[in-house]
Amino acid sequence: MNFEAVIGLEIHVELKTKSKMFSSAPNVYGALANSQIALLDMAFPGTLPSVNKEAVRYAIRVANALHMEIDDELHFDRKNYFYSDLPKGYQITQNERPIGKEGYLEIETEDGLKKIAIERLHIEEDTCKQLHYSDYSLLDYNRAGVPLIEIVSKPVMHSGLEAMKYVEKIRSIVTFSEVSDGKMEEGSLRCDVNISLRPYGAKEFGTKVEIKNINSISYIQKAIDFELMRQAKILLSGGVIAQETRRYDEMKKETILMRVKTDAVDYKYFAEPNIIPIKLSKEFIVDAIRSCPELKDDLIARFIKQYQLSKYDISLLTMSKDIAYYFDECAKYSSNYKTIANWINVDINSVLNKNNLTIKDFNITPMMLCNLIKMIDSKEINNSQAREIFAYMVDKDVDALKAKKALGITSQILDTDFIGKLVEEVIEEFPESVVDFKNGKDRALGFMVGKVMAKSKGKANPKIASDMLLEIIKNS
Question: pTM here?
């Protein structure tokens, strides 16, 4: 029997506001434990919540990017449950009236664009962070009260790959709109997966299993693919799927049981009595939308039109908002867009990955990179020399001209008479390479060009040398 997977995702996104959702405590990641808290975060009696205006603005940005209906009245509710990570004994959230509802986004699939329906986006506060040890647990309340948006999809995805692409798209929206850094490894974007199997053609859903807190986009697909196989094996052997909460073990590459679910929890929602409904003006909503930075889809469309690069180059340049902005800045200093893209996608990314840096930490400014590229375009230096200069620029934090002088690199030799003599010498010294090239061994040409470059101590223009070699061999 063949089964169809039914998958829905709940994504929690921490918003990078300066303060928390309902208190004035700083919203800072990585600070000393329990150093970024206010009395409200600890549920001291007599403290009252105050709504973070910027968090509401950020939520509207994302809701608009997801083509949602935006509620012009802000309502908050209490979600009541007792747990050690929740000092008040309840969470302030939105239940009946989320700020955004009935949206969608589109993902690329093998069959073209697929529209993923989204049920709701609501605002809430985060819980504190729990640190579990062998025989005790510690609580860090720095995270308690951090602004969150929760994005709940409808159960319309059918594979781990679709789910992974959906999360990638959500992450691009929240990072490019600058509402969150989207770092799953730091918990600022967390994903819960609801998954079930049913026979193809069946209308009823199967028993739902939840996979909690997946902390990597690649693990989303791996966790779902494993869970699909696990459930299929149980059903094919005549077993019954238990309603469970599981987690993904990266080492074992499988989902692990956390707890068995029975009846649905009754959170006894009721309206938050300390926050009256807030009317959002049309001007406020419009301003939140208009102030949103360029989203990834719009940026890709602009790059295609403005720079006429390949989809592959653009896909690499837009993997990161900051990389895309770096390229945009480079384009102000040089119109050689393809060469700029090559340097960013290959050489600069290599330095960043090797040193675990971001482009914001990179010491070569767009102007410095483009000055190097202009040296190549004017044939002042060749590509080999350019990479030597680039490495020196990165190491010594100097511009291209100073690096060139420090390395003692002189301008390329463009004199065709001089290069022609070297070409003739190489042909005379390596006749077997000429024969190899005529017999279809293209590498022989590269070998001979290399010999010309060696004779010129790396100063000859390699294209002129290559063209001359081809002309002489062709006529010989």
Answer: 0.84
